[in-house]
UniProtKB/TrEMBL annotation:
Keywords linked to the UniProt accession: Aminotransferase, Pyridoxal phosphate, Transferase
Pfam families in UniProt: Aminotran_3
Reaction(s) this enzyme catalyzes, per UniProt: L-ornithine + 2-oxoglutarate = L-glutamate 5-semialdehyde + L-glutamate
Record bears the keyword Transcription regulation: no
Cofactor dependence: pyridoxal 5'-phosphate
Transferase listed as a keyword: yes
Coiled-coil region: none
Family per record: Belongs to the class-III pyridoxal-phosphate-dependent aminotransferase family.
Enzyme class: transferase
UniProt gene name: gabT
Single GO MF annotation: ornithine aminotransferase activity
Protein name per its UniProtKB record: Ornithine aminotransferase
Family annotation (NCBIfam families): PRK05769.1 (NF004426)
Amino acid sequence: MAPKWHWPQIDPDRVPLVKIEPPGPKALEIIRRDEAVIMQSFTRWYPLVVARGYGPVVEDVDGNLYIDYNAGIAVTATGHAHPKVVDAIKRQSELFLHYSLTDFYYEIAVSLAEKLTSIAPISGQKKVFFTNSGTESIEGIAKIARGYFRGQRPYIVAFYGAFHGRTYMSMSLSASKPVHRRYFSPMMPNVIHVPYPHPVHCPFKAKDPEECGRYALEFLEDWVFGRLVSPEEVAAVLIEPIQGEGGYVVPPKSFIRGLREITKEHGILLAVDEVQTGFGRTGRWFAIEHFGVEPDIIGTAKAIASGLPLGAIIGRAEIMSLPRGSHANTFGGNPVAAAAALATLSVIEEEGLLEHAERVGNEIKKALVDIAGDRHDVRGLGLMIGVELLDERRRPAKNLDEVLTRSFKRGLAVIGAGTSTVRIAPPLVIPEQMALKGVEILSDALKSR
Ligand SMILES: Cc1ncc(COP(=O)(O)O)c(C=O)c1O
C-alpha cells in the first residue's frame, strides 16, 4: 500500500523544479539578515531557505521545489504539513496552549503516554517522561539511571562515534566530532567511551563486522570492566542502535545482543538513544526492534510530533522512579505538541508507513548499490540510509561537501553525516518514484566534477 498523496498543490511527478539557481535573490537577502542577528554556530551545508513544505517536498523562498531527503533532519515523519497533523494542532490550539504538567494534569499527555508505552519494545509496565528535545531526553536518561541506583553507580558507558546532543551531559556522552567539544571542557565526569563496531572502519582491524563486534564487547569486558571501573559502578550503557550523526552506521546484530547479555549479567541498564532512529525511520517503530533485544529505557524526540518540539523517555516503570520534585520541566508534554504526536503516530499506523519505509528504503538501497556499491559503502535500514564516500584506499573521501552542493543545485535537499557519508532520511511518506528520482540526482552529483 502506498501512502495517500495529501498535497494537491504539487504534482509529485514534476518535482524537483529548479527555476532559479539557488541561492536566488530572496534567499540571499534572508541569509544576509540571518548572519547579522543569529549566532553562526551551526553546520549548514548549502543555502536552502525554506518557505513551505508539502509532504516530501520543500519549496524555497525563490519558488524552487526540492525533493526532501532530510525531513528537517529526520523529523517530519509524516511529511511537511500533513493535513491530519495540522488539523490536530489547530484543534488543540483552540482549547489551551499550555498548562505545565509538572504541577497539573491534562488528558492529552496521558493519552500520548499510553500510546507510547503501548508501542515501546519493552515488556511489562512502562512509564514516560516528556521532554522538549533529543538532548533533554538523553540528559534525563542519565539522571534517571543514576537516580535509580540512588547514586551507587556513577558511571555511564557510551561509544566512539556517538552523538547524543549539545547540552553538557549529552555532549560529554558524544564522541563523533572534536568540534562538538573543543573549547567547552571540562566535560561531565564518569563517562567512559568504548569502540562501536563500524563495518568499514573497525577500530580493531577485524576481518569482518561480526568479528569487530566481538572485539568491541571484549574491550568493554576486559579493558574497561577488567582494568578501569568495576561493572557494579556502571549505571547504564547508552547506545544508538544505528549511529546517526556518526555516519549512519549499522552494527552487527550479534554485537547488540552481546551487549544486552553483558549489561544484564552486571545489572547495568541498557539505554538506547532512538532520537534519530525512532518512530518508523527504520521501518519499525524503534530501530532496536531489528536486533531482537529489549532495552530498559529509550530516549526519543525528533519525529515524534512531525516537527513540533517534543521528546519522550520511555522506560520500565521500576526504573522511572525519580523522587518527587527531583526532575521536571515547564514545557515537556505540551498539549499542542502532544496532539501533533498522537496524530503523527496514528498517521504512521493508518497509512502503513512502517511497511512503506522498509519497502522504499530497500528500493533506494538497491538503486544506490547499482550506481555506487562497487566504490562506496551503502548501508542502513528502512529510510535511514547512508552512502559513505570512499577513496581508492577505502578511506573516507573528501568530496562530501561538493556532492551535497551539486545535489542541492539539481533539486535534491540532502545533507551529510560523519565526515564522508551522504545521509538519506526523507519523510516516511515519500513516493517510491520520487525517492528513486533522488537517487538519480545523487548519482549525477557523484559522477560530475
Ligand atoms: C541520536 C541523537 N541523539 C540526540 C540528538 C539531539 O537531539 P536535539 O537536537 O533534539 O537535542 C540527536 C540530534 O541529531 C541525535 O541524532
